[in-house]
Amino acid sequence: MELSITLIIIIITSLVSISAMNNQNMVNEMIFFPPSVNSGQWYRFFSCGLIHADLGHLGFNMLSLYLFGIGTATHATEGPAYSGVEYSFIYVFGDKGKLLYLGMYILALLASLLPTYFKNRHNYHYRSLGASGAVSAVIFAGILFDPLSGIGFFFLPVFIAGFIYAILFLVVSQWMERRGQDNINHSAHIFGALFGLAFTFFACRYIGGFNIFDYFMELIKNASPKDFIQFGSN
Length: 234
Known about the structure:
Blueprint: H1 5-21, H2 24-30, H3 34-38, H4 44-47, H5 55-69, H6 85-93, H7 97-120, H8 132-145, E1 150-153, E2 156-161, H9 162-179, H10 186-206, H11 212-221, E3 229-231
Antiparallel strand pairs: 1-2, 2-3
């Protein structure tokens, strides 16, 4: 496998995150802190996506990015070489695919945190870190390309169609955001996911000349009930 954009992001993010875990000054300079953004440190919208709270946080995000960004080899004579979003972008957009994929990831870091910023721009107690917003964009872009691909829940032998997972994800994230009883920025997940959908739709429609929404709906319309939920290995 070539050194893809996804692998480059994973390597850089992992190296920076692990370094920052042992360097609090580095965390302080890179973390998303709205009052510092008010002072002109706009880079924090992006730098915070390079650091994570711990190895579990980092591992979950990077594994998710790998699974949806690269995916598995398709061995197909036509279509992308791998099932992930990066390769779907290359298939649809040709030489511009990698640049568009990277652009979506970077812009998703900004888009996912804008609502958080406006809500907490004068909150000196608020901080946020992690690439979850951008990873959510990649996941939802992947669901738009393949809405019937099964998504599992940790080690449970149950897989549900991607579009059903997307609905549940947004509903549960919104509910948890309103509860506000944990230290997770669910708003970044929601808006990152929505940005991934919007970016992919408009890029396909106006750059690739491909109406991905019609394609998405056609796949769901022609699906059978067994495509919606599966038990056992996927």
